[in-house]
Known about the structure:
The chain is α+β, with helices and mostly antiparallel strands. Helix content is 18%, strand content 36%. It has two helices and eight strands, in the order ββββαβββαβ. It has helices at 46-50, 88-103; strands at residues 5-8, 11-16, 36-38, 41-43, 51-59, 64-70, 76-81, 111-115. The strands form two sheets. Strands 5-6-7-2-1-8 form a six-stranded mixed β-sheet. Strand 1 and strand 2 (11-16) form a beta hairpin. It starts with a strand and ends with a strand.
Amino acid sequence: RVEIRETVVEKVVVVEVPQTPSTGSEPSFGSSLTSVTRQNSEFSSRYISDFEPVQCLGRGGFGVVFESKNRYDDIHYAVKRITMPSSEESRKKVKREVKLHAKLEHKNVVRYFSTWEE
């Protein structure tokens, strides 16, 4: 049995996922996962530098979850990419959810590992 771990991007949440057989099709991650030029400055994504996307695991109310292989420890994680809402109230709600998840420790809840903003 493989343990599951979790993280948050834009807000990123990372979770270890079990190895899965290849589906035979390449996942589509779009050009937004590569380096982006913003207002004449280079932006380097931590997600792209630290993880290799494997496949999309699902979509939900807060964001999209990708199975991603960490380039340093070779462990597969579920990485939840969340586009932060524009309203301050909604942003607080997302941050509150992250803080609560970080404190949870239960056999039926995915283990939380890290969060960062890009």
